[in-house]
Amino acid sequence: MSLDIQTAREQLSNKGFLDVEVPKTIDLISEIKKLKKEKNAVILAHYYQEPAIQDIADYVGDSLGLSQEAAKVEADLIVFAGVHFMAETAKILNPSKKVIIPDFNAGCSLAEDCEAADLQKLKDKHPNHIVVTYVNTTAAVKAISDITCTSSNAKKIIDSIPIDQPIIFAPDKNLGAYLNQITGRNMLLWEGSCIVHEAFSIDKLLLTHQKNPKAKIIAHPESEEHILKTAVYIGSTSGMINYVKNSPADEFIVATEAGILHEMQKEVPHKKLIPAPAKENNTCACSECPYMKMNTLQKLYICMKYELPEVNVSEDIRVKALIPIQRMLEISAK
Ligand code: 13P
Ligand code: SF4
């Protein structure tokens, strides 16, 4: 298996990943480990990645943890097993390092729902507002934001802003509504949402709870209000894992992307974890992120071998996008 540069370029522009046939005899795990050493690479993975990718990663975490980890990377090559905006954040923080992602198409419905030009129009209409954006946005959107946040530090970030300062919050309307409720603000909310967290069915969730009355419902704040109202705990993926670990309860219904169950079950092997059911029947009767699942172990191997596809951000956008990310990291560290 080898690919010339011209074919690689064509494949990347047509498909967004390198479509190379890998012989079945190749042991992907040991090859990835070899490449990691050879290239002085670090693999950063989100909890929504498939289990095999999480297991081979050097660091697995939530969006905040991944940004914090990216800020202190010493390796030469950053392999980002997550979605595009996460890899972009790593590049913004590490302009001199090469950042690669197994599949360039691994996007995010939230990032897609918010174009920089549209956000600029809203800013122009409300010049006295400051703009807080969720990290699930493009670098161009971050470049016109005042501060970013993730689900684990959003309340802290909002609380750091004077109470009489009007705020535009983008792009997640569900997280925004939840933040308005817990901070007592009235932020102007962008109309974006996460297709994965909006897929949960409240009727099926209540039925699952009836069948498992001892189970505690825990939810990610990207979920809709009716789902959040049923939850005893609302937090980021890391927050949910910690809650399950520290709770005396033995059963949980977990309302977030099903990939989290891998790490969660490792932490609490004797506890019962039930994925919250999605509206439509799909293969796992849960909710999976189609973008996160574009990355596979095979694509991870190929991207490390060829160091492609690479994630780049123009210097003009990068320097502007760095400011709100750094503000977030500074406040989070306090
Ligand atoms: P966290 O891992 O920060 O909770 O975010 C979840 C998510 O949807 C990432 O895309
Ligand atoms: Fe985006 Fe939702 Fe997928 Fe996270 S789970 S990457 S917010 S679409």
Structure in words:
- It is a single chain.
- The protein is of the alpha/beta class and 334 residues long.
- It has 16 helices and twelve strands.
- The protein folds into three domains: 5-106 and 292-313, 3-Layer(aba) Sandwich (Rossmann fold), CATH 3.40.50; 110-194 and 317-333, NadA-like (Rossmann fold, 3-Layer(aba) Sandwich), CATH 3.40.50.10800; 202-275, Rossmann fold (3-Layer(aba) Sandwich), CATH 3.40.50.
- 43% of the residues lie in helices and 14% in strands.
- The strands form three sheets. The chain has a four-stranded parallel β-sheet with strand order 2-1-3-4, sandwiched between helices.
- Strand 1 (41-46), helix 3 and strand 2 (59-61) form a beta-alpha-beta unit.
- Helix 2 (28-38) runs parallel beside helix 15 (297-306) and helix 13 runs parallel beside helix 14.
- The model has no long low-confidence stretch (mean pLDDT 95).
- The structure holds 1,3-dihydroxyacetonephosphate and iron/sulfur cluster (SF4).
- Iron/sulfur cluster binds next to helix 6.
- 1,3-dihydroxyacetonephosphate binds at residues 62-64, 108, 136, 150-152, 194, 220, 222, 236-237.
